[in-house]
Amino acid sequence: MLDGKKSLFSGMQATGTITLGNYLGALKNWVELDSEEYQCFYSVVDLHSITVRQDPAELRKRARNLLMLYIAAGLDPEKNCIYYQSHVSAHTELAWILNCFTYMGELNRMTQFKDKSAKHADNINAGLFTYPCLMAADILLYQADVVPVGIDQKQHLELTRDIAERFNNIYGEVFTVPEVYLGKVGTKVMSLQEPTKKMSKSDENANAHILLLDEPDVIMRKFKKAVTDSDGEIAYREDKPGIKNLIDIYCGVTNSTVEQALKEFEGLGYGVLKERVGEAVVAELKPIQDKFYDLSKNKDYVDKVIKENAEKAGYYANKTLRKVQKKVGFPERVR
Ligand code: TRP
Predict the structure, then answer these.
(1) In the chain, how many domains are there?
(2) Tens of pLDDT, residues 269-299
(3) Ligand 1 center to residue 227 CA distance, Å?
C-alpha cells in the first residue's frame, strides 16, 4: 500500500519497437487497470537491457520511444508514474542488498537465465545471472501489491515473493509480498507466418509480426499474407492455429468474446476475415501512432514528464530503501 492505495508496478524492456503481441499481452492491460484504484508505476527497465550487449545510441532512442508509447497507448502520466529505471538509483542500491539474500541455487533455476545464456553464450555475465534480484528490487521498492506481467515472468515473480518473505522473516514487515496479476484471459499473439510460434520482433520474416508503429497499409498487407489453412472453415480450434490467432487478435483489439467474433464472421471467406481483422488492428493502433508522433514533436512536454515522474518514483523508492538500509545495519545519515 502507498498513500492509502494499492500499489502496482510493471515494466518492459526497450528491446526494439514493441509488437502487437507486447501490446495485447501487457500494455493494453495496463491501460485498462484503474489508476484511481491503484498507485501505478510503469518503468522502462533500461538497467535490465544491458544484460545483453546494446548499441548505446539505439538503446537511448528505443527507451524514449517506449516511454512515449506508454503515454500514447493511454497511460496518463499525471496519474501513472512513467519513468526510466536508470533515473532512480535506488533500484541498483536495493538490488545489491537483495543479491545478498538470494541463493545461487535459486538463480540457477530461472528458465529465462538458461534461455538467455544459451542464446548469448559468448556473454554470460553476472548481471544476466542476478537479473531477478534487480527485478525483485523494482517491485519491492514500491511496496507493490500487484504486478501485471505475462506468464513468462511468473517464475521471477515467485522468486520475488520468496525474497520478500525471507527478508521480512528476519527483519519484520518491511516489504509487501506482491501478487502476480496475469490479466484477463491472456491474449497470446502468435506469428502471422507460423501461428504455432509466439509473435516475436526478432523474427527475421517481417510479415510474421505487426509492430506498433507499422503504417496502416503495411498492417493490412501483413494480415493479407497471414498463414491460415486449407479447409476454409472459420472456427476457433487448436488444430486451426492460424484462424484461432486471427480471432484472438480480433477479440484482443475489439474487447469482444470469441462467440461474438464467430457470429460476426459467420459465412465469410478467409480473405474477408483477414481484412476485417486488419482493419480492427489499424483502428486500434492509428490513434496510438498519431499520439506517438505528436509526442515526438513535443520534446519539452516529454522531458517534463520524464523529470517529474523520476522524482516521484524516487520519493517512494527512497523511502523503502532507507528503511531497508537501517534494517540491515547501515549507519544513519547525518543531516
Ligand atoms: N523482466 C521483465 C521482462 O523481461 C521486465 C521487468 C523488469 C519487469 N522488472 C520488472 C516486469 C518488474 C514486471 C515487474 O518482461
Answers:
(1) 2
(2) 999 999 999 999 999 999 999 999 999 999 9
(3) 31
Query: Which grid cell sits at 297?
Result: 514533436
Which of 323, 285, 292 minimizes the C-alpha distance to 142?
323
Do 16 and 60 sit in the same domain of this protein?
A: yes
* Residue 198 burial (C-beta neighbours within 10 Å; 0-12, 13-18, 19+): middle
Nearest Cα residue to atom 9 of ligand 1: 135
Identify whether the C-beta of residue 176 lies closer than 8 Å to the C-beta of residue 145: yes
Domain that holds residue 254: 206-294
**Ligand 1 centroid to residue 301 C-alpha, Å:** 26
CATH code where residue 98 lies:
3.40.50.620
Q: Is the beta carbon of 135 within 6 A of some atom in ligand 1?
A: yes
Q: Taking Cα atoms as reference points, which of 28, 45, 12, 4 lies closest to residue 145?
A: 4
Same domain, 169 and 215: no
256 plus 136 within the same structural domain: no
Same domain, 75 and 155: yes
| Ligand 1, atom 13, residue with closest C-alpha | 10
Number of H helices, E strands in the chain: 14, 5
Quick one: 140 and 259 in the same domain? no
* Helix/strand/coil for 82: strand
User: Looking at residues 30-59, what average pLDDT do you find?
Assistant: 93
The reply to whether ligand 1 has any atom less than 6 angstroms from the CB of 138 is yes
Active site residue 198: yes
User: What's the N-to-C CA distance of the chain in angstroms?
Assistant: 28
Provide the whole-model pTM. 0.94
